[in-house]
Design goal:
The protein has twelve helices and 16 strands. By secondary structure, the protein is of the alpha/beta class. Strands 1, 2, 3, 4, 5, 14, 15 and 16 form an eight-stranded mixed sheet that branches. A hairpin with a 7-residue loop joins strand 8 and strand 9.
Length: 418
C-alpha cells in the first residue's frame, strides 16, 4: 500500500514537473535577432529548455506557465566575448586568480576549465546585467606567444557551468605580451609560425587519447578550432590576416584597437573581432590609433564584432561592461541592431556556438531576459531571466549585503526589491 502511494505521488510530481517545463512569455517586444525588426505583442513558447515558437498571435498551450512581459523588451541573454569569469574573483589576491599557467610545461595545452568556480560571486553579479554566456580565457603562459585554451561557460545556477572545453587556442603578441617572454614582436610571430609548421609536419600520434583538448594546434590547422590573437596594433592585425592566407586557419582578434584600419581585409577573411569596451582612447602605444567609432567602421565593413571589458572590469563587470560598450559604440555610429547583435549572435558565431544560442528562434536554447527598458540603456535592468528554460535568480551578493546592512533602505539598489 505504501509503495503504491509512493508511486502515485512520484507520478503526480513528474507530471507537474512536465507542465512546469512549458512556459509562454506573452505581450513581449521580442528582439529575435533573426532580422532587424522587433516583434510587438509577441508570444514566446518555451518547452524542455528550448524555444518552440515565437511570433505575434500565437496561442499559448493549455499546459503552459504564463509569464506576462507587459510590453517590455525580451531579448536573448547576452554573451561576453572574452573574460575570465569563473577564473578570477579578486585580481589583487593571487589565491583567487586561476587564469594563468605560471609554471610547468603546459604551454598551448593549458586548459582553463579545470579551475572554473561555479560559486563565484561575480557570476551572480554578471547575471543581474543580462549575461547568460561567456568565453572565459587564459591570461598568460610560459610558452609565449601561446596562453592556452579557453572555455565556453553558461551562467546557469548549477555546480556545472562548463559548456565546452578548449574552444579556442589563445596567443598574445606585441604590447599585449610580456617582454620577458617571447622576445621581440618579430620573435613572437616567428615562434607562432614555427609552432604551426611543426604541428603540420609532426605525424607522430599523440599519446593522449583523442578528445576536444588533444593536439590543439592540429585542430587549429584543420579548422576545428579558431586561433584567437590578442592584438591591437595595425601591423599585428595584418600579420593575423596573413596567417589566414598562409595556413587557411580560422582567426579571431581580441582587442583590435586599430582594426578599423584593416576593416575590409578582416571582413573578407571572416575574422571576428572582440573589442575592448572602452577602446575609444589609447592606453598603450599599440593602441595609438584607437578611435571611438571603431565598432561602427568594422560593422559597416561586414566584420562580426563582439565586446569584452578590460582592466578591473574584465571579470568583475563582465555583464555591465559589455552593455556599456554597446551603448558607447551606438553613441558613435553603431546601429542599435548591430549593437544588439554584438551582444548576442555575433559572439556566438565568433566562437562557434550559433547552433544553440544567440537568437530567439525555434530550436535554440531558451536563454531569455525581460528588460525594464532598452537593453543597451545603462539605466535599464534585467527583471527576469531564463537560462536553458529555467528561471535563475537575479539577486547578487551586493544585494544581500545591502539587505543586511541597510535593511530599511530600498533606494540603494533596484534589485533590492527582487
Amino acid at each position: 500500500m505504501k509503495k503504491s502511494i509512493f508511486v502515485f505521488l512520484a507520478c503526480l510530481g513528474s507530471t507537474s514537473l512536465g507542465h512546469a517545463q512549458t512556459k509562454a512569455i506573452i505581450n513581449a517586444r521580442a528582439i529575435t535577432v533573426t532580422d532587424n525588426e522587433v516583434i510587438e505583442a509577441a508570444t514566446i513558447i518555451i518547452r524542455d529548455g528550448e524555444i518552440e515558437a515565437i511570433g505575434a498571435g500565437i496561442i499559448a498551450p493549455d499546459d503552459a506557465e504564463i509569464i506576462d512581459a507587459g510590453g517590455r523588451y525580451v531579448s536573448p541573454g547576452f554573451m561576453n566575448g572574452a573574460t575570465q569569469l569563473g577564473l578570477t574573483e579578486v585580481n589583487s589576491i593571487s589565491g583567487t586568480v586561476d587564469h594563468s599557467a605560471s609554471g610547468g610545461d603546459l604551454g598551448v595545452t593549458f586548459d582553463v576549465s579545470y579551475a572554473l568556480n561555479s560559486n563565484s560571486s561575480l557570476i551572480t553579479l554578471a547575471r543581474t546585467d543580462g549575461l547568460v554566456r561567456a568565453l572565459t580565457i587564459p591570461g598568460g603562459g610560459v610558452a609565449a606567444p601561446f596562453d592556452g585554451m579557453g572555455a565556453a561557460i553558461t551562467l546557469r545556477q548549477s555546480d556545472d557551468i562548463l559548456e565546452r572545453r578548449c574552444l579556442a587556442v589563445f596567443a598574445k603578441v606585441g604590447g599585449a605580451s610580456s617582454s620577458a617572454v617571447g622576445g621581440s614582436r618579430a620573435a613572437q610571430w616567428q615562434n607562432l609560425r614555427m609552432a604551426l609548421d611543426e604541428a603540420a609536419s609532426n605525424e607522430k600520434e599523440d599519446a593522449t587519447p583523442e578528445n576536444e583538448c588533444s593536439n590543439p594546434l592540429k585542430k587549429v590547422l584543420s579548422g576545428e578550432r579558431p586561433l584567437a590573437i590578442h592584438a591591437s596594433r595595425e601591423s599585428d592585425i595584418r600579420q593575423s590576416v596573413k596567417l589566414v592566407d598562409d595556413y587557411g586557419i580560422r582567426v579571431n582578434i581580441i582587442g583590435g584597437a586599430e582594426a578599423w584600419r584593416v576593416a575590409d581585409e578582416i571582413a573578407q577573411r571572416n575574422i571576428g573581432v572582440v573589442l575592448d569596451a572602452y577602446g575609444g582612447q589609447p592606453n598603450t602605444f599599440d593602441e595609438f590609433g584607437a578611435r571611438s567609432d571603431n565598432a561602427a567602421i568594422l560593422a559597416a565593413a561586414g566584420v562580426k564584432i563582439a565586446f569584452m571589458a578590460t582592466s578591473i572590469h574584465y571579470s568583475h563587470d563582465a555583464g555591465s561592461g559589455i552593455r556599456d560598450a554597446a551603448g558607447f559604440a551606438a553613441a558613435f555610429g553603431l546601429s542599435w541592431e548591430n549593437a544588439i547583435r554584438a551582444l548576442t549572435i555575433n559572439p556566438s558565431e565568433i566562437w562557434g556556438l550559433e547552433d544553440q544560442y544567440g537568437m530567439i528562434t525555434p530550436g535554440q536554447s531558451a536563454d531569455l531576459v525581460i528588460w525594464s527598458g532598452d537593453p543597451i540603456e545603462p539605466m535599464s535592468m534585467a527583471e527576469r531571466m531564463w537560462i536553458e528554460g529555467e528561471e535563475v535568480s537575479l539577486t547578487s551578493r551586493q544585494d544581500l549585503l545591502t539587505r543586511r546592512y541597510f535593511p530599511k533602505n530600498e533606494i540603494l539598489s533596484p534589485a533590492y526589491r527582487r
